[in-house]
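User: What would this chain look like folded?
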Amino acid sequence: MSPPSLGTRLKHAIAGTPRRRRVAGLLALALGTFLVGYALTALVFLGASRPDVVTVPELRELSEPEARRRLEELGLRLGRGTALHHPSIREGAVIAQSPLPGSEIAPGSEVQVNLSRGPDRARVPDVRTLQAERARQVLERSGFSVELRERPDRRARGRIVTLEPAPGTVVNVPSRVVLVLSSGPPLVAVPAIGGQAEEAARLLLDQAGLRLQVGGYDPGSTQPPGVVVSQSPGPGASLPAGSVVVVTLAGPAPPAPPAEPAAEEPPPATQGAATAAPVG
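Assistant: Here's the prediction, encoded as structure tokens.
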């Protein structure tokens, strides 16, 4: 035979003597009072420990009116901090905010934002007369990144040829400036100028980017006087542009120009002695 259930035992207890019924009523009253008190305590203390909060939204890259509207929809206020330059975010858009997105704050709190002033702008300095390393330092201190390139040029190797963008151009900062350096004069082929008169040979060399220099004369040559009978270096050689080709001309060397007479020095100034007349 199975034991009586809990419900059966309670029913018997309640249906028992008047004393038992009073005890059971007191227990039920105490239990109910405890439960009501616990509920009130939890409502007061737990509710007071965590007031209503608002999660801060993401505002970056929004315009100021858009950010303000987003905050007002959540019961928050917008405050403006210092505007700052930014290389990529458009002028007037939010670039930073405090508190950060995802933070929890009380309704009515202020969220401060910093708006973009757009990219900073600066004028490319003229550094063409400087040495390459010094020019690079000046450009970097002005907020530019520097890229070095080389190309053949009549200037000596390592000298600055130009800048891209050109000096004086106003551009965003930071941005890149290309510093074009000379890799040295380009090589040119020496033309054949043997048999040419001196002036014709000079013109041919000039067109090739070279210079003529008379190195001597050959009075025993069968060529007419003034004609190139030899050249150094010979035809087809490669020289840097601006180099000299030395030639020998047929005929005797021209007479040396007369020496200019030396300027005569003026005679030294003489001082006359003043003689006082005797007083008679």
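Residues 273-280 have pLDDT under 50 and may be disordered. If you want, I can go into more detail on any region.
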